[in-house]
Amino acid sequence: MGSTSAQTTTSTTVVTTVTYQGTELKLQVTSNSTISGLSFNKNTRLMNFTVSGRDGTNGFCSVHISKELLDGKPIVLLDGNQIQAGVSQDEANYYVYFTYNHSSHNVAIGGSNSIPEFLYALTTLLLVLSVLLFATKTKRRYCQM
């Protein structure tokens, strides 16, 4: 006979209020990790916090953020690297969900128009696609002569 063990997961929610352009807006993070340092930088329009948990376990975060606080669709950076996140929205808010392996991680969430790394990658991709398209059209023109 084998035995099974269940891992008990508890979630905590951290909420902070940000006054942005004269309006009080709520940031909410629910996670099975320990959340610390939740802040929002009004100049860069980036939400930052740290998640930590026991090595070898999985972590998750569910983030509720007002659309007014972000410049574009939400992008999640974990230790400076963009990760996949589920994003849904209603009229006023974004709901962002992502997972990770536990240890200690720095999380930044910003809009797609305010994260320089995302803009650089998008610009590079568009440039490469333009060059490939131009090269393909040029090659076809020379092959038809």
Q: What's the β-strand tally?
A: 10
Strand content: over 45%
* CATH topology call of the largest domain: Immunoglobulin-like
Query: Which regions have little confidence, pLDDT < 50, spanning 5+ residues?
Result: 1-8
Rounded to an integer, what's the Rg over CA atoms?
Answer: 21 Å
Report the average pLDDT across residues. Answer: 81
Could you say which structural class the secondary elements and strand pairing correspond to?
alpha+beta
Instruction: Supply the CATH architecture of the largest domain.
Output: Sandwich
Count of the domains: 2
> What's the multimeric state?
single chain
Largest sheet, if any? Answer: 5 strands, antiparallel
Q: Percent helix among the residues?
A: 10-25%
* Shape annotation: globular
Strand order of the largest sheet: 1-2-5-9-8
Count helical runs: 1
Instruction: Look at the structure and give the CATH class of the largest domain.
Output: Mainly Beta
Q: N-to-C terminal Cα separation, in Å?
A: 76 Å
| N-to-C series of helices and strands | EEEEEEEEEEH
